[in-house]
Write a structure and sequence with these properties.
Length: about 400
């Protein structure tokens, strides 16, 4: 514990005292239109329930996050390439130490003819929890590719077609039954009804292909959405859509079919106070028992308040429900698992300089499951500093 702790303390002191002069005097490093943004972050987190179990285990996590961003833009053309590493060391449970890596690249082209082309890819080597049901911290490779082509036919009507591919590959052979490829083909039409507001209609086809059809089954399905997007009022920006989703699985287990929705809204209450509201309902691939999926419903809300030119305070809360369709044997009886998850976050961000930021965060979360095995309470406190040049 002493070595990583010493490294972080010394680094925090060096950054707080001064740091590289080019960050304040010359701004971002650039070569013509190519901007280079080196970054580094340090964070210490106390977690009183590392494994999210009723029988708690607490520990302190030290994380160092170096990275670099490359951005090039010119007349509606944008190219970016970002790299970020998260190097985590636990004070006691060293067998869960990790080195996570993220590479994010994209080309975004907009032409005067009305044509739009986007190609992006996000590669991650990570051990984070993908969904609410995950308890262990399991390393995996995750790669998401996204391609979109759009065209603006008239001043009001535009269309976009897209293809996405997601790969999941777990390092531990025990979890290889969850390795899978997901392919998504989509089409979206936008019709502008006001200056900055458009109606949308979207269709999506999804195919899920598991590498090993042992405990999990391949699936295909379709979904349709109707919604509205844009600046709904002078102070409110939102994308709101709802529809129907179906997913048919191979094998004997239950298929999915039901209503879905997605809401993301931000409202500027005052010059220094922002409200955000969001929510969703969808089917999520499950790793629990004999369930193909669980129905995930989530709502969230938050407030962010600027205090002077340097400080920002935030508070947020969320509720999620995970509903499983298949009966599973737990504690000697068959039952359908149903989880309620509640959480709240408090945060404080303070800008020492425009390139140097400190943060303090507190998160409380609890899960109330129909199976007592999966109940937990969790508290995390994090203190960090980050520099972006």
């Amino acid at each position: 514990m002493h070595k990583p702790c010493s490294i972080i303390v010394v680094s925090l002191l060096l950054l707080a005292v001064g740091g590289p002069a080019f960050g304040t005097e010359f701004g971002n490093i650039h070569f013509g239109r190519l901007y280079v943004h080196p970054r580094i972050g340090f964070e210490a987190t106390y977690d009183d329930n590392v494994f999210l179990l009723g029988d708690t285990k607490d520990d302190v996590l030290f994380q160092i996050s170096p990275g670099i961003d490359l951005d090039y833009s010119r007349e509606g053309k944008l190219v970016r390439l970002n790299y970020l590493a998260d190097i985590g060391r636990w004070a006691d449970i060293s067998n869960y130490d990790y080195e996570n890596h993220t590479v994010d690249g994209a080309v975004d082209l907009h032409f005067t003819s009305g044509l739009m082309v986007f190609v992006g890819d996000v590669f991650r080597k990570t051990n984070d929890r993908m969904t609410w049901e995950w308890l262990p911290l399991i390393e995996r490779i995750q790669n998401v590719t996204d391609v979109k082509v759009g065209y603006e036919f008239t001043d009001r009507l535009s269309f976009r077609v897209g293809y996405g591919h997601m790969l999941l590959d777990y390092d531990d052979e025990k979890y290889s039954v969850f390795d899978r490829d997901i392919d998504i083909v989509s089409g979206t039409a936008f019709y502008r009804i006001l200056n900055a507001v458009s109606l949308l209609g979207e269709f999506q086809y999804r195919q899920i292909d598991y590498e090993k059809e042992v405990r999990r089954y391949d699936a295909e399905g379709m979904s349709g959405w109707l919604g509205v997007t844009g600046q709904l009022t002078r102070k409110m920006v939102a994308i709101i859509k709802g529809g129907w989703q179906e997913r048919d699985y191979d094998g004997p287990r239950e298929d999915w079919g039901g209503g879905v929705f997605s809401i993301d809204l931000s409202h500027q209450l005052t010059e220094t106070l922002m409200l955000t509201v969001g929510g969703s309902r969808k089917a999520v691939e499950s790793t629990y028992g004999d369930n193909n999926y669980f129905t995930a419903t989530e709502v969230r809300a938050g407030l962010e308040k600027e205090i002077g030119p340097k400080a920002t305070v935030s508070v947020s809360a969320y509720y999620a429900n995970s509903d499983y369709p298949e009966e599973t044997l737990e504690q000697g009886k068959l039952s359908q698992r149903d989880d309620d998850i509640w959480g709240a976050r408090l945060g404080l961000i303070y800008k020492i300089q425009h390139w140097l930021t400190t943060s303090l965060r507190y998160t409380h979360e609890e899960r109330d499951s129909s199976s007592d095995t999966y109940d937990y309470d969790s508290n995390r406190v994090s203190l960090g500093v980050s520099a972006v040049f």
